[in-house]
Design a protein that fits this description.
Blueprint: H1 3-46, H2 59-79, H3 84-111, H4 120-152, H5 160-186, H6 189-196
Length: about 200
Amino acid sequence: MNTATQHIASTDARARAAAVGVGLWVFIGVASTLFALFLLAYVMRLSGSDGAAIALPWQLWLSTALLTAGSVLLQRAHTSRSSARTLLLAGGACAIAFLAAQGWAWQTLQAADVRLASHPAASFFYLLTALHGLHVAGGLAAWEVTLQAVSRQTGPGPVDWRVALCARYWHFLLVVWVLLFAAFSWITPDLARVICGVAA
């Protein structure tokens, strides 16, 4: 491949990376709006006369630790080219373990007779954690594509942007999860009524 061809290929790769990066930011904006609207609906519903918080299972702390570890590992994969594949594998394993921990948390709630239709807080808990889980599963599909690209790579550079975007998406997933966990942990019916301006 001559110098001119290499320059064209490099320019095309940069243009593609920029386009995909913009697309990811748009997706993150849309998904953030979706989660914000659901959280607002949760607060409004919790402010009702039948609003009641649920006792959260301890597995959610495990989920938080796993998603945090995955985010850190993917960021390191972006900055450490020599061990990018190993770090990507570890980050993906954390994401899969996160989904397993979420399933375990659901089982714990089911065993405590906290079901989807038990009351509004339970319904929103299952809905929002399932929605987040779907975003994690979608991220794993992109992670698989990125892992394959890194595995085929013979030198530095060509797929670095894929790893960077994968890490960015994982950071987004972590931020959303922390906000969901905080909302479920700290927003009580009384606080929800204050936020919504509803008389107790």
